[in-house]
Amino acid sequence: MIKRIIFVVLLCLPWGFFVTAADFLWGNALGYLVIPAITWWSVWRLGRHARLRWLVFGLIVSYMLSMTMTGYIDGAWDYFFKPFNQSIVMNIWTIVFASGVGVAYVYRWAFEKTRMPA
User: What is the CB neighbour count within 10 angstroms for residue 2?
Assistant: First the structure.
């Protein structure tokens, strides 16, 4: 049960906002590699303790938090993400996270299914 709670809390973090913040604060593209690797690794390690509804719930909460935090910045970082603005970059990376989390979850499910005896 505790691993399921940890998994859902990790998914609920605003990962889309973290990617744009890492790009702005670090000044390089390392955040585009490190932050998705963290989320996908956590799905692989903790994914067997969660159900699909918790996965979807966590991704929706993460998206809402990312949108809220991007709204609080209110265009202060938009000059950095030319020709896009921060919300567009955040939306793109939220889709990347959601696809990667979905693929990792399905792959983990298939991996567990093949290890079960018939």
Answer: 7
Q: How far is CA 106 from CA 47, 69, 110, in A?
A: 9, 30, 6
Task: Extract the tokens encoding 115.
Answer: 């290890």
Q: How many domains does the chain have?
A: 1
The tens digit of pLDDT for each residue in 54-106 reads 878 888 898 899 888 888 876 677 777 777 787 888 888 888 888 888 888 88
Q: What is the pLDDT of residue 102?
A: 82
Q: Which residues contact 102 (CB under 8 A, 6 or more apart)?
A: 55
Q: Give the structural domain span for 81.
A: 2-115
The C-alpha torsion from 84 through 75 and 57 to 11, rounded to 10°, is 80
Inter-residue contact 66 to 16 (CB < 8 Å): yes
